[in-house]
Write a structure and sequence with these properties.
CATH topology: fold of a uncharacterized protein from magnetospirillum magneticum
Radius of gyration: 17 Å
Shape: globular
Largest sheet: none
CATH superfamily: uncharacterized protein from magnetospirillum magneticum domain
Distance between the termini: 34 Å
Number of strands: 0
Number of helices: 11
CATH class: Mainly Alpha
């Protein structure tokens, strides 16, 4: 069992605050494309209130989160694509960015969603997510220490992210839809040697 200080899931509870952030990620990617450095990007977002949040503190926190998440992909072309490609493509890349930033999202998308695609089993229910968390809590002391409220919030966010990316028709859906992996993202995933992530996007070639 993983010791608390070694847990790969450290920081995953931040998802309850940060969530999917598609609009914010797109806005940040456009500023990155202008060649601004990290501090200039964050300052611009705060000064112009580009996220339309109520407090400067929350804008600054989310701006930092978006910069970190975009950079976690380690790929300039993907940042460019988030800024300029269709919403569908940009959302898919943002999903990959979220997987790269949070080990919990990575594991969920590969071991639950990717496995369903592999088995051609398109049924989906709250139970799938519950089982994922139960297994995680058995394996990892840190996750085992999360409150029921934290687990419930993260569970809701995972389901919402699936709906936002059209894996689910809505948050109450009982089946997952086949998705199509955009070649821009597929090439980047292969270049990053993240081939395991391909299953999360229904790609097995």
């Amino acid at each position: 069992m993983a010791k608390t200080n070694e847990s790969p899931y450290k920081g995953s509870a931040q998802i309850t605050r940060e969530q999917f952030l598609f609009y914010e990620m797109r806005t940040t990617a456009k500023l990155m494309r202008e060649g601004l450095n990290d501090d200039e990007i964050i300052d611009r977002i705060v000064e112009d209130n580009l996220f339309q949040y109520p407090t400067e503190k929350s804008i600054r926190q989310m701006a930092k989160a978006c910069v970190n998440r975009l950079k976690a992909m380690g790929d300039e072309d993907l940042i460019e694509a988030v800024a300029s490609q269709s919403s569908e493509t940009a959302k898919q890349i943002c999903m990959y960015a979220m997987m790269k930033q949070y080990r919990l999202v990575w594991d969920f998308m590969i071991t639950v969603i990717g496995e369903k695609y592999r088995m051609q089993n398109f049924s989906f229910s709250q139970m799938d997510v519950n089982v994922f968390f139960m297994q995680l809590q058995e394996q990892d002391d840190y996750v085992a220490g999360w409150s029921e409220t934290t687990v419930k919030k993260i569970r809701q966010i995972l389901i919402r992210v699936l709906a936002e990316n059209e894996y689910l028709d809505n948050i109450k859906a009982d089946h997952i839809n086949p998705v199509w992996l955009n070649p821009v993202l597929e090439n980047a995933i292969r270049s990053n040697n993240d081939d395991r992530a391909l299953t999360a996007f229904n790609c097995f070639s």
